[in-house]
């Protein structure tokens, strides 16, 4: 069996780790649409350590949009590295109570935000929408140009909202297998992915979710995950992020070792980036390398 890594973490120069990986894929067509429709501002939502917030801030700076980041919860000073980066890229940071944040997609909340900040192209938390799926589909087109993809190929990816996985399933168009490894605890990911596929009018069944590698849930970790990240970086010279890709690589390699995966001859693991999160994580939990 061959294990290949799709290095989407390298999509943007390493001195700005924020606008790479699945963020670039998911934002590309949103940015094109926002520009074409004449929007000057992007507004989006996220937690204080969100890769998506960091990426939208970078995208705004690169492509000439002002950006507003609506952050869940209250302000903590000094700002963590993610929000420092976002602010440094010119993002206006606005904190929203957790109770209001839960209602952020409701029309009254969106109207209030528009009254306060003006008209903006609104991206959902995590950036998953139809345009995001379109961008992720291109990842598969690229893979087809780089290697042979056939019925015995599996593409493996980390899941948060499930948008990246759904885009990959669309791109695979029924061929091979797509395996998702949620970084969050719970059994909702199947439903999310199914719904995203249904909204695109397809019902491919060549995918599965592997729920045993969340390490306690979103942003949670265990010592063996930290050791794995450090060993992986040392052995392959590839950094993984602590929230998403470390759990993915740990999970897929573990299942392969156990002989528990029916994955065919070629396994392509997608490195979706997220390395900006390392700094904030190290500030909280200590260095891992
Ligand atoms: C680095 C990284 N990988 C994977 C994911 C999961 O992507 P999705 O929300 O599309 O499932 C995210 C989340 O946003 C992420 O930041």
Q: Note the beta-strand portion.
A: 15-25%
How many separate domains?
2
Question: What general form does the structure show?
Answer: globular
The first-level CATH class of the largest domain is given as Alpha Beta
The CATH topology of the largest domain, please? Rossmann fold
Ligand roster: pyridoxal-5'-phosphate
Give the uncertain stretches in residue-range form.
none
Order the strands across the largest sheet as they lie in space.
1-9-6-7-8
Question: Rg, please?
Answer: 18 Å
Q: Ends: how far apart?
A: 29 Å
Query: Main sheet, how many strands, which sense, barrel?
Result: 5 strands, parallel
Question: Your description of this structure?
Answer:
By secondary structure, the protein is an alpha/beta fold. It is built from eleven helices and nine strands. The strands form two sheets. It has a five-stranded parallel beta sheet. A four-stranded parallel beta sheet has the order 4-3-2-5. Strand 3, helix 3 and strand 4 (92-96) form a beta-alpha-beta unit. The longest helix is centred in the middle third of the chain and has 17 residues, at 130-146. It binds pyridoxal-5'-phosphate. The site of pyridoxal-5'-phosphate has 20 residues, from helix 1, helix 2, strand 6 and helix 7.
